[in-house]
Design goal:
Layout lengths: L7 H14 L2 E3 L10 E3 L4 H8 L3 H10 L4 E4 L10 E4 L3 E7 L2 E6 L6 H9 L1
């Protein structure tokens, strides 16, 4: 690509990735060499739905009364902060001011509370 001086394969892969995530959308009526894209504007609720936060985790977050943004937890990251709400499927943890992550809980019975404490 002439503007960015990156390999054409890299540009195509990056554009395909952005389109798959819904960050950009192909302009209707454009194709092949003349294809154009536009930035996809979405509501905050749509962005949360695409982010991987389940409806149950979102409902638990809203019921907790916390204000801020909720994101899905990355299992490869260890988060610090208080757990503000739990149910049988999720734990909501505050990781920064007005920033929360939703952890899925995959344990059963009395092991649930110990697993929440150990994993966060």
């Amino acid at each position: 690509m002439k503007i960015t001086k990156c390999p054409e394969r890299t540009a195509h892969r990056d554009i395909a990735g952005l389109a798959a995530m819904g960050a950009i959308a192909k302009v209707t009526g454009t194709a092949t060499r003349n294809v154009r894209y536009e930035i996809a504007l979405v509501s905050m609720r749509q962005a949360l739905d695409r982010s991987g936060v389940s409806d149950q985790a979102q409902a638990l977050f809203e019921a907790s009364g916390a204000q801020g943004a909720l994101y899905p937890a990355n299992p490869a990251i260890r988060y610090d902060g208080p757990v503000i709400a739990t149910n049988e499927q999720h734990a909501i943890q505050q990781v920064a001011s007005r920033t929360f992550v939703a952890h899925p809980i995959q344990t059963r019975g009395s092991d649930r509370v110990a697993a929440i404490t150990a994993n966060f």
